[in-house]
Amino acid sequence: MANGLNPIAFLTRTRRPGRIDITDILSWVWLIGGTLIVLIPVVWAGLSSLKPAAEITRFPPSLLPHAAVQKSVPGFEQPLSLWNVTIDGQQKQMAMVRRIGLKAQMVDPDKPGPPISVDVKEMTQVQRLTVATENFTDPLTRFDFLTFLKNSVFVTVVATLMTLIVNALAAFALSKYKFRGEKAIFLLIISTLMIPLTVIMVPAYLVVVGVGLVDNLWGIIIPTVASPTGVFLLRQYMLTIPDELIEAARVDAASEFRIFWRIVLPLTAPALAVLAIFSVLWRWNDFLWPLIVLSSRDHFTLQVGLNSFQGEFSVQWNYILAMTFLSLAPVTVVFLFLQKYITTGIAGTGMK
Question: What PROSITE patterns does the record tag this protein with (predicted)?
Fold first, then answer.
């Protein structure tokens, strides 16, 4: 493998060959620390999604998913948890009948007799490594997770396609046409970035109510299609496309839409890919707007549906963590396929 393609050589290279500078140390600390800060919560959520419900709230927490070992004991209807107990200096495996304060009632699981009282400080629970697959299967079979997933996929795909088309058309007009008020319109579009979402949420909801799109997936999609960030990103990239290409196409009698579709859009592919990634992340993770617009469970998106696992008196953390971790898969796949366009697309927006 060539030196430039060797990841070990890339990570261990220094500013001066054969010498380690303070900037090299700071760079390694920054990169390794930043990577750990990002990865540790994701790894923790992934491992916690495999734990039984009781283990998630256990303190002190464990890194790997474990479950208490239980055994059916004659004379008891429910299986009892097994504990390693120290009695008279000897360690035995006992089954716990009940716990009262700092004392626990224990019996021999093989030859149960009268319960004996044991100090909780003298006992440790018997556990084994386990994977709670029901955290994933229960929401898929007993709840409406697949419906939530279908709704989220529909909203994300349709909203992203409409966002790309609408913002590309606006960016094409603002970058390749000269007309009175062009800069004023662009500044007006960019200035909307400074308006907080909470300010326009109530008027936007009233418009959705007026057109009859409440509790409808289109009520989520349509108000979010026009994005000032998308217009700015695509306009700045389209400014780098030579005007001579468009003039040559006009000389060949190409229509304006054909110029846009066959020339401008293909050349803007890196910026479109960046906007597509942003749009997928926005739509997929959106919670507040769908929560306001949607009221029927059949129309809930994934993020709103996950909120249904949080009750008034209890929170089903095992289901929430499992489904949250599962919901990361689609956006991760999109990012992996389009990541090569990110640097090119963002860097190209500032070239002119």
Answer: ABC_TM1 (PS50928)
